[in-house]
Amino acid sequence: MSGSSSQGRLGALADRWLPKLVLSPTLAASLIFVYGFIAWTGWLSFTESRLMPRYEWAGVVQYQALFENERWWTAAANLGIFGGLFILFCLLVGLLMAVLLDQKIRAEGALRTVYLYPMALSFVVTGTAWKWMLNPDMGLQKVVVDLGFTDFTFDWLVNPDMAIYTVVIAGVWQSSGFVMALFLAGLRGIDDSIIKAAQVDGASLPTIYRRILIPSLRPVFFSVLLILSHIAIKSFDLVMALTGGGPGNSSDVPAIFMYQFAFTRGQLGVGAASAMMMLFTIVAVLVPLMYMETRSAKRV
Amino acid sequence: MFKNLTVGRALVYAALLLMAIYYLLPLYVMLTTSFKSLDDIREGNMLALPQAWQGGAWGKAWATACTGVECNGMQGFFWNSIKMTLPAVAISTLLGAVNGYVVSMWRFRGSDALFTMLLVGCFIPFQVVLLPMAQLLGYLGLANTTAGLVLVHVVYGTAFTTLFFRNFYITVPDELVKAARIDGAGFWTIFFRILLPISGPIFVVCIIWQFTQIWNDFLFGVVFASGESQPITVALNNLVNTSTGVKEYNVDMAAAIIAALPTLFVYMVAGRYFVRGLTAGAVKG
């Protein structure tokens, strides 16, 4: 009797401490590798670190250097162009495909598989494939020229004014199927009786989608925006593989800027400052979106 | 309804097929290009089938193509990626499972706040941790090693895996665990006897997600590994963007497919779970 009860007490004691003990390595890792490292990078961005890290406070010199760097502003503008168009087209293409696939389509499973497989690929692979297809000598341009349109040119990949748009093309190809999957899951989650009632009232199918179904996808819409803007701000591998940031620096993005200044040009301070700017951008975009998402989720 | 409008339905199918072609085209072009000879590529049309199917580019991509100074093809880097991905996936998934179990079933004062604190790790741009991480790996003697990359992927992957398991375990009825506790079952007994047996699907989802993420990673690979310890994504990028010599598009494409094969295979075999993982990670992530 007493043996089993003391065992029980011991067990209860273990059960009080075990959960905390189990969680603690991950928490410690998070404290060091996420919070500590952000603080460390933040500190570096206020020093005069160049090739080697230095830890004496130097004020905002690196941010000044960053903001006076034309290349940084090219990268920031490109992020705006790429991010905006990437999100817009992913939303449009993804929503359109979801609505079309929702029409009791035969072979829906096969089509979904086809739309989604790019998501399994690395951005480097995607970039490599599109780099080949978009190259002006032997790629799509030649295909169209061979068809008889001899004046056709499509040289975006090597055209400094247009190179960033090739990143949009490849990015949308890679990610729009995923957006489709999310919207389709949302559409399938809507109660059928709402649609039936609207049909009884004589509403046409397009009206039902425009007025009832698509508006009720609001929470999904916010999730999608959240993920897409996250992908856009972090985008690095796709640009590296597709254009390498070129021609020149014309398709540079902040992630490449950060990588090159911090790791190949030996300008740690500027690299750290640009990394902090990326963090601020993510916070500035994601926090309002998350706030709106939780609000709209509560309302539904 | 559309059922009677055959024209409408035909249009829907036409649009869907057109989209399917758009998605399949790059894969088709990659495959056919990889089997063409260089002359065939230069003279022929990108969309045409090879005049003569040749496997030479594949052999070269695997064994002799140059990825910088070295000219040993993708083979070594392929194994690097395997040696990096398997342990990183295993460790981060197991950690995620027990963490998810704690934050869903054994909540204590402050555990929700701690979980939120962990989740922040899913959202940060990794650029913000690269410089300190490079320093730390240097101190630990792990710079340019596969072990270092495993550490990095485990550290930054565990937030996601914890989220996956937590979202799965909160759907398990509390009564199950409460009843077991009254019967005297402890922390580990409940985990191994009650939760693990029903965790199959979430393990599959989580493993697939982690495998895809880690195999496809480029940023950590390019920053923390160099030369012989590089993962395959970095090697592929080096191979494609080496500016010396004749551009061998057939070799590039074969190498790209080699780099993509493992994740494509997983997608083909377990696509259902793959989608579920994406949506699960998305809904809360």
From TrEMBL, chain A:
PROSITE patterns on file: ABC_TM1
Domain ABC transmembrane type-1 as annotated: residue spans: 76-291
Domain of life: Bacteria
Protein's UniProt keywords contain Repeat: no
InterPro entries: ABC_transporter_permease (IPR051393), MetI-like (IPR000515), MetI-like_sf (IPR035906)
Its membrane topology: Multi-pass membrane protein
Keywords for this protein: Cell membrane, Membrane, Transmembrane, Transmembrane helix, Transport
Gene3D superfamilies (UniProt xref): MetI-like
SUPFAM superfamilies listed in its UniProt record: MetI-like
Cellular compartments annotated: Cell membrane
Stretches of the chain forming a coiled coil according to its record: none
CDD domains documented for this protein: TM_PBP2 (cd06261)
Pfam families according to UniProt: BPD_transp_1
Spans traversing the lipid bilayer: 21-43, 79-101, 113-133, 162-187, 220-242, 268-291
Keyword Transmembrane helix among UniProt keywords: yes
Protein family according to the UniProt entry: Belongs to the binding-protein-dependent transport system permease family.
Listed name of the protein: Sugar ABC transporter permease
TrEMBL record, chain B:
Segments crossing the lipid bilayer: 12-31, 84-102, 114-134, 146-169, 190-211, 253-275
Main location: membrane
InterPro entries found in the cross-reference section: MetI-like (IPR000515), MetI-like_sf (IPR035906)
Limits of the ABC transmembrane type-1 domain: 78-270
Pfam families attached to this UniProt entry: BPD_transp_1 (PF00528)
Annotated family: Belongs to the binding-protein-dependent transport system permease family.
Gene3D superfamilies according to UniProt: MetI-like
Membrane topology field: Multi-pass membrane protein
Protein name: Carbohydrate ABC transporter permease
Assigned keywords, A-Z: Membrane, Transmembrane, Transmembrane helix, Transport
Keyword Transmembrane on entry: yes
Subcellular location: Cell membrane
Highest taxon listed in the record's lineage: Bacteria
